[in-house]
Amino acid sequence: MTFCLGIKVTEGLIALADTQIVKGSERLSKAKLSLATYRDWPLCVMTSGLRSVRDKTVIYLEEQLSMVDAEFNRVYQVANAFGAQLRRVYEEDSAALARSSLHFNLHAIIGGQLSADPEPALFYIYPEGNWVEATADAPYFIIGRTAYGKPILDLLLGGDTQLRRALGLAYLAFDATRTSVTDVDFPLDIMVFSVDTGQFRQQRCTAAMLADTTDWWQQQLKSALDGLPLSWADSLLIKTLKKSPDCQIARLKDVPDESH
């Protein structure tokens, strides 16, 4: 499976993706986050789904971006081009994939800033080739394993979150996902686009590189749990069985058997 996360905040963009691919009994490491360019303008591309569909679509897109007569000045136009190439691959390969009981299910995230974009832009492209854009009130997209990282992002991430803080939240969303599933893991690819530089910086991180951050976060969670206000639960945790005005006590023998 996959964990790919794209975030848009006022100060820039964050793209983060795991690299693990599980194939039967094999575990491989392959990049799911790549850097594409249109002339001198950088763009990040992340995908989740069949690797063969991903590689073919990305190559078609890169070929289109490199054409001399290609004219793109907004990132949404690149999202349109990716969607068109994705539909092209569907026409070419979907029947053969269906015969092998494989589903055409590629999802993608594309981000960057071109010459006419007033600010960085981030798009989620669906398998059908249509897309939605990240906004201040919906500043992130996850593809692949989507459920485990959402709570912390929904609680703490906003469109005006500082870029550094958003990067920390991105890692914690990955860490929550990696902890809960076996098919998402290090190494971790990260790209950060700053509006100050107009460029992406990228880095591949191993578990050892981020061990201090991971250990610190786990310790903070334990400390927070130790200090969690639980006075409301006192009547549930009494050591001597007695009646409480705030809590009904039921013995197992008093509970009707509804198994029939």
List keywords for this structure.
single chain, five-stranded antiparallel beta sheet, 12 strands, 260 residues, Glutamine Phosphoribosylpyrophosphate, subunit 1, domain 1, 27% strand, alpha+beta
Fold and architecture overview:
The protein is of the alpha+beta class. The chain has a single domain, classed as Aminohydrolase, N-terminal nucleophile (Ntn) domain (Glutamine Phosphoribosylpyrophosphate, subunit 1, domain 1, 4-Layer Sandwich). 31% of the residues lie in helices and 27% in strands. It contains five helices and twelve strands. The strands form three sheets. The protein has a five-stranded antiparallel sheet, with helices on one face. Strands 5-6-7-8-9 form a five-stranded antiparallel sheet, covered by helices on one side. Strand 1 and strand 2 form a beta hairpin. Helix 1 runs antiparallel to helix 2 (75-99) and helix 3 (150-156) packs antiparallel against helix 4 (163-180). The radius of gyration is 23 Å and the shape is globular. The two termini are 41 Å apart. 31% of the residues are buried. The model has no long low-confidence stretch (mean pLDDT 93).
Summarize this, please?
By secondary structure, the chain is α+β, with helices and mostly antiparallel strands. It contains five helices and twelve strands. Helix 1 runs antiparallel to helix 2 and helix 3 runs antiparallel to helix 4.
